[in-house]
Specification:
With about 80 residues, the chain is mostly beta strands. It is about 15% helix and about 40% strand. The strands form two sheets. A three-stranded mixed β-sheet has the order 2-1-6, covered by helices on one side. Strands 4-3-5 form a three-stranded antiparallel β-sheet, with no helix packed on it. α1 links the parallel β1 and β2.
């Protein structure tokens, strides 16, 4: 079976994205494709130590447990992997 792995940003509702996929794929060769959904992380920089790390806006720095700021937001939708 064909599989696609899609990642969505924090502002995207996975159920809505899945419904949109089903509607767009209906009647096409993609209708039977299995879709796996993941969350795409933002890129943050810690205010205290400057470490850049992947996470969500309220995630603490893995190095010093300080707070960080989003420097690169996650994409709304990205294809991570697919199997023909």
């Amino acid at each position: 079976m064909r599989t696609v792995v899609l990642a969505v940003g924090a502002g995207v509702d996975v159920d809505s994205a899945a419904a949109a996929w089903q509607a767009a794929a209906a009647g096409t060769s993609l209708a039977a494709t299995r879709v796996e959904w993941q969350r795409a992380p933002d890129r943050l920089r810690c205010f205290a130590c400057g470490l850049e790390y992947d996470g969500e806006p309220l995630d603490l720095c893995p190095s010093c447990e300080g707070t960080g700021i989003v420097i690169t937001p996650a994409p709304e939708l990205a294809a991570v992997d697919w199997t023909p």
